[in-house]
Task: structure prediction
Amino acid sequence: MTLLQSYKSQLEYIQPSPKFKKITDGQFEAVDFPGYTVITPPKEEESENSQFYHRLQKCQEQLIELLGKNLMIPLPSNSFHLTLADLIWESAFTNASQNNPQFEEKLRSCIAESFQELSTSTNGHQVQWQVFGIVVMTRAIGVCLVPKDGSSYQQILKLRRSIYQNPNFIALGIEQQYHLTAHVTLGYFGEIPSNLDIPNLADQISELNNQWLEVTSEILVHRGELRKFDNMIGYYRESDWPVVNL
Result:
């Protein structure tokens, strides 16, 4: 995913993100896109990984300069985070909430159960993942991560299994998200110019990507939190919502 050829092929298929709409020239706003997720604490509430997020902010600035704000809609850096487990979003969440007034309460209860199960099996090993490079997705751009060691991989695998294999969670009818491409999103695609010079842009992204080969950039995944979102620029929680220390 971080090879030059991958950038060239993926840039052929990029699309504007439906999670944003254009309001003025060069200005986009987030549209309603509600749901729940399990993530690491967002940058604005994270003290353990300040250097990691500082580097990502620098990478985002370089990508904005390279792509321009019409092509790339930058996310607020305070919202940067690593998604540990997607849960439910948009129409699936809206429909579930309307059909079951207790849906959100039950969802929070299920995640609390899963976190409780997981907390009894933690081994005290630090969970660390590291940036592997810039990744171009269909509607977004960011950096992808790989586990630093086997134990760091296994702990995230346990977290996801504890959620997706929880019988009470399954009973809520939520589609299981078993495949994980660990990444931090830096921005979404806005307007795609018809004359986009894909070979040149791919070369420039690849050149920028080489920076990640020079210095190892790691995130300490020390905590997972259930968070709610109304759109793609803010993630919030109440003080009594479930969390798990990893």
User: Anything to note?
Assistant: The CA atoms of residues 50 and 79 lie 13 Å apart.
